Amino acid sequence: MRIIILGILILTSVLLSSDTTVATQLPITVSQNGYSGLTVAISDSISENVALIQKLKDWITAASRVLYKASKYQLYYKDVTIVLPKTWSIQSSYKKISGLKFSRAHVRIDDEENPVVGKVPYVFGQTECGKQGQYMHLTTYLLFAGELAGFGEIGDVFIHEWGHLRWGLFDEYASFEEAGLESPSAFYLDDGTWKPTRCTEEVTGRNINMFTGAPCTVTEDGIPEKDCVFIADKDSSATASLMGQQNVLKMEEFCDTDESSTGSKLRHNSQAANNQNIKCNSRSAWEVMREHDDFKGNTPGSPSFDTTPDFTIEVETDQRICLLLDISGSMQKNNRNSKMYTAASNFLLNMVADGTSVGVATFNNIGRVVHEMLTISSQSDRQQLVTSLPTTTGGTTSIGAGLLTCITALNSSSEGLEGSMIYLVTDGEESRAPYIADVQPVITTSGVIVNTLALGNESDTQLGGISRASGGQSFYYSEDEDSTVLTDAFAAAVADTSSDMLIQIESKSFSLSSTQSFEHSITIDATVGRDTILQITSSESNDIEISVTGPDQTIHTEINSTFGITTVKIPNIAQSGSYKVSVTTASNSMIPGVLNVQSKVRVPGETTARLSVWLSDDTHVYGSDSTTVVYVAVLKGMAPVLKCDVTASLEGYDASTVQLHDNGIGSDSRENDGIYSAYVFSNNFKRNGRHTLKISGQNTNNRAEILKSKEKSNTFPYYSGLTTELVGNFQRVILSSEISVTNYTATQLTDNIKPAKITTLKLKSVQLKGDKLQIILLWKAIGDDLDVGTASEYDFRISDSFSKIKQQPEQCTKLTNNVPIPKLAGSTEQYLVTIDDDSLTKYIVVRAIDDVGSKGDYSNIVSVSKLTDPSWTSEAINTVNLTETFVSGSLALAILLVMMILGLCLKVRSSKTNDQKKLINEKKNQNQKPGKRGSSNKHHYRYEYKNRNYIV
Ligand SMILES: *[C@@H]1O[C@H](CO)[C@@H](O)[C@H](O)[C@H]1NC(C)=O
Ligand SMILES: *[C@@H]1O[C@H](CO)[C@@H](O)[C@H](O)[C@H]1NC(C)=O
Ligand SMILES: *[C@@H]1O[C@H](CO)[C@@H](O)[C@H](O)[C@H]1NC(C)=O
Ligand SMILES: *[C@@H]1O[C@H](CO)[C@@H](O)[C@H](O)[C@H]1NC(C)=O
């Protein structure tokens, strides 16, 4: 038989966010079974290609049909927007929109490949079961050739990814992602045989070594050989599940419960060792979907309903921004008006990109335009806008009036309002109409994005809501002396408005006097250095002197001090390396100040390390077991940056800093995906109200590295292998959107935080010793408080009933012999257990218990039984054959790595050929033991890659 491994998978990746919204994702609504607002944006790196637009329409039309059927006639895509980059020529039929919608789109078409997954589609930013991901990444290769390449039918592929993105479903195919633990999870031991991970069990296929095509055997450890994969038959009659083998031709449904009342065609395979079971407590796709708001209160439509979406084509134009400044009486308090003046001047002079149109409006009881929209093309344009900034205050607060004024100002152009931005700065609670709620409908229908910066803790609580509803961000400035937020938040507002964005290198507060100078080092890495600016913001700026010494000892003296900000510009391209900043003053009293450093990539379009941040929730209810998760992605281009030092500090506080990790335990969904995460506990907060997290990501000891392919190949899906590459020292800071704390009390919190659930339990070996089974279990240690610290005890349970161990694990027998003592969170743990063999399948779970007796949730379930199926132990190789093209062993490694990270779902189309004997002989000549791979410099075969024959 000729093997054709078609395909693969579809992947998922990392992150997640709060229940229904991702801070900067455009809103999607559901009404009458139809989704509105789905936005697909094409990267400006893709050259103009009108065929791509039609291709996208075809895809989404097909996806809408698949979705309608798979959702039991409850959902389809009603209207869909396709956004073209501003580099494409504008047709009169396109709608123009302001700014970069790409970074807020749900689906991004981008040919920049994630070097780990290549052309494979994936969802970035999946974190927890049932939670929305950040975006879907598709390449044009996939759009034009994906179906032929074996990814599956286009509509199925899209809906598989939609399951990840929208409903937080996980893959039901095998996943190898816990890379540190070598046991494969492509199979699970049950009833005397290794069964393939799949959903449903109706999916037919074969278990083969992916390099030789031979049937799999078990290793000396009694587990399937490492390169063993399950290849589903493309023509399997199974119809579920789209989250599993979605490239099987007849796939069109999601799995439902594992109860016998669910017919076998749809019955969830709750024992399979896949991420859906691990992350979702063995629940099926439908059990998770039914809890999603999208499925609440729907009346299924008619099966014959026409689900073709309405498409709108938009094209991006330069950003339009209305700066909306509060001048009500309270702005005099705490020097708010002068601080706002300083920060806004800095924004106009140094942050807004050329080509952006900016207008300025103010409001108290009424709104006024103080500068009409002006397209910035010169320094004098910037100056002119600065001169319009307000300097006097008075009156009451009507935020709605201000918003309406900006809408009118932004609406002055023929381009319409959509995508334009209002940047609202206010300290006030609304005291008169029109209120925010009054203008909310206009904001929503016009598509204007509202970013808000709240000054002080009396600002209106609705600010965050209007930002989120519009796809904008809200920031909070605490007015603490050591806060850097005022400048950072202005920078964050425009970070996404241009593809040539400003990168925040450093933001640091300090204080100094005549006897105590401020000395600080910063790193300008080799990928940035254009338009580099160092700024000191200080109310006493006339009294300070700054010196900046470059890596080659050049002293930079191009200093300009205006509006309370002292600016040092590094001419041309700043040399990379360490810069020493020294600030001195003649003042005898302590003066507070803030240092900010920003730059741009050395050459426009070059990739550089960038941070993005989101939170699991924007409110935190103070309590002894409350947590909020902070997620930070560190990517260089699409490549995950590993081994970076990432921290989150509550801004304006002393010493509340948490360390983020990318180790695949606790809050961190997946190891080594470049998404770092950490729980923020209530004891990090010391008051109610808004808070801002400042994120720092740095590599100061040259450890951080990216994963990348050794050679770039044009043809999916060859990987020449993955390698790591040092990224060099760098530093970055960004702000999170605000987080609001409620129910704070000053009383000491008791330790109610239990250890995290273990999700990495696996079999390392299973051996029959007489009438006993000797097994070795592997897992990663979790902590005392979730994923932090060291737990006190492990509690292992065993049962021969799957439903009992799933539903009442604490009623099952406890394993007590030689149970290891927990190690520090993240360490690899191992446990050798000997159990009686009575020929029944046994199920094992574990939980950790902390020093005060708080018990974590039980882990994923591992099954074990005596292997009696002879097909796993025989050496007969008689079914498969390969074409004999030689490639080096690095292919094997690469594929494995890819699989580890992505999971794998292969498909075979079989057709007889006749050179299998030759292969077998060659295999023997390699003198390998069955089940053992040769060393990596031995040659392996690869599958022929032509026509429709592809390997993963
Ligand atoms: C924007 O201007 C257009 C045409 O001048 C007008 O029809 C529309 O109502 C305005 N939109 C808003 C939200 O004011
Ligand atoms: C706001 O902060 C001030 C001082 O920081 C405090 O006295 C006041 O109670 C706070 N108000 C609210 C509504 O939290
Ligand atoms: C300093 O900045 C002001 C205002 O931006 C500008 O007019 C002046 O030319 C600048 N001076 C120098 C030396 O750059
Ligand atoms: C927070 O406090 C309010 C008022 O004291 C109370 O009604 C509410 O139940 C509390 N919320 C939680 C989650 O404890």
Question: What does it look like?
Answer:
- The protein has 952 residues and is of the alpha+beta class.
- Among the domains are: 320-497, Rossmann fold (3-Layer(aba) Sandwich); 503-604, Jelly Rolls (Sandwich); 609-742, Immunoglobulins (Immunoglobulin-like, Sandwich).
- Helix content is 15%, strand content 32%.
- It contains 14 helices and 52 strands.
- Strands 2, 3, 4, 5, 6, 7, 8, 9 and 14 form a nine-stranded mixed β-sheet that branches. Strands 17-16-15-18-19-20 form a six-stranded mixed β-sheet. Strands 30, 32, 33, 36, 39 and 40 form a six-stranded antiparallel β-sheet that branches.
- It is globular and about 85 Å long.
- The model is unreliable at 1-23, 177-184, 713-720 and 876-952 (pLDDT under 50).
- The structure holds 2-acetamido-2-deoxy-beta-D-glucopyranose (NAG) (4 copies).
- The site of one 2-acetamido-2-deoxy-beta-D-glucopyranose has 2 residues, from strand 26.
- InterPro entries: CLCA_N, CLCR, VWF_A, vWFA_dom_sf.
- Residues 320-494 form the VWFA domain.
- Residues 1-23 form the signal peptide.
